[in-house]
Design goal:
Length: 386
């Protein structure tokens, strides 16, 4: 059978591909330390588990409305209103199968063929391919020296076809968190060029020092009206396997995304919706404990990287470090570096090339203390032999 051009041209997720190779080695008996996948190594909070079990036991596990249960949409609207400090209503909320699904819904609703979307680097591996799937054109833009938005380069990237910009703060892979001043500058830039802002806020809760993460929707009413917030349960509530997320947007965008979801997938499963609602109604105590643990791991890893001669900008959020490995890489770049590291030391990292920055690698510190210590030992040994 002939395979569609769309399927032929789409790239496999690098993080998932590396994770698959790491698991293949592990299945063969190799003791792999996997720092490639961004998945919290904590159980979902007890209130989430209890709610999921109760939902199954009730026997009332059926289709829900396309946009999600009214109770969960209410809970999301209340949660986003409280955490961003700007009122949102349930009709502006769409419950999706994950934050990635919410991003896909948003791009399909907003992008016409040939529309250009600015993607500040470093950028999560799926942004580029999601834009392409929506028949848009991704335009990658290098960051400032601090790792934030480079407004001179963003201005230089504007064309008559530019329609929007994707931002991610805290950032995967760098952990960079935009402050209010930078977010205000983003709002002014978007207003100047009449752009929509797709704000991926999946790591919003995971900020370890300084000012909290600021959503563009908070800046003023005009920016709120051009911002689509994407968030979900995976990172803050360690609910990766529940596969549940949402978008919050002006109602015209949400309504368009609901129409798309009605034909492509329908509503997410009712068990995960019920469990997510329980997490949102009052933040579980386990979340704060998880953030504290990540903060300690971050300090340990940054110190270890510094001792190895790997410079990494201070990641205020998420659970990644993104050190520069230029002096240790060969002509194959960060991909070759990570391939050698996996085969020689059974340590899985993600090449910076996947995020648009080939002189870097991403390390996830979503590992317990013993595994994190072993990862540091293997990386140090690998570098000593380069």
């Amino acid at each position: 059978m002939k395979i569609s051009r769309r399927a032929q041209e789409i790239a496999l997720s690098v993080t998932l591909a590396l994770d698959a190779r790491a698991k293949e080695l592990a299945a063969s008996g190799v003791k792999v330390v996997n720092m490639a996948v961004g998945e919290p190594d904590f159980a979902a909070p007890k209130v989430v588990q209890t709610a999921a079990i109760a939902k199954v036991a009730s026997g009332d596990v059926r289709y829900t409305p396309i946009a999600g249960t009214p109770a969960l949409r209410d809970a999301v609207a209340a949660h986003v209103s409280k955490t961003r400090g700007v009122p949102f209503s349930a009709p502006e909320v769409l419950i999706c199968h994950s934050a990635k699904h919410a991003l896909m819904n948003a791009l399909l609703a907003l992008a016409d063929p040939g529309d250009e979307v600015l993607v500040p680097l470093p950028a999560w591996v799926s942004y580029i391919e999601i834009i392409r799937l929506a028949n848009g054109v991704p335009v990658e833009v290098r960051p400032s020296e601090s790792g934030g938005l480079n407004f001179a380069k963003l201005e230089a990237s504007i064309t008559p076809k530019t329609r929007g910009i994707i931002v991610n703060s805290p950032c995967n892979p760098s952990g960079y968190v935009a402050d209010r001043e930078e977010t205000e500058a983003l709002a002014a830039f978007a207003a100047k060029h009449d752009l929509w802002i797709l704000s991926d806020e999946i790591y919003r809760r995971l900020v370890f020092e300084g000012e909290r993460a600021i959503s563009p929707a908070e800046i003023n009413s005009e920016t709120r009206a051009r911002t689509i917030i994407v968030d979900g349960a995976s990172k803050a509530f360690a609910m990766t396997g529940y596969r549940i997320g949402y978008l919050v947007a002006p109602k015209t965008v949400t309504d368009a995304a609901i129409r798309l979801q009605s034909q492509m997938t329908g509503a997410p499963n009712s068990i995960s919706q019920f469990a997510f609602q329980a997490a949102l109604e009052e933040e579980p105590t386990e979340v704060g404990a998880m953030v504290d643990e990540f903060r300690e791991r971050r300090a340990y890893l940054l110190s270890a990287l510094d001792e190895m001669g790997l410079s990494a900008a201070n990641p205020r959020g998420a659970f990644y470090a993104f050190p520069n490995i230029a002096r240790f890489r060969d002509a194959r770049g960060s991909s070759g570096f990570c391939e050698d590291l996996l085969e020689q030391q059974a340590l899985a990292l993600v090449p910076g090339a996947a995020f648009g920055m080939d002189d870097h690698v991403r390390l996830s510190y979503a590992l317990d203390g013993a595994q994190l210590g072993e990862a540091v030992r293997r990386l140090e040994l690998f570098l000593s032999e380069r």
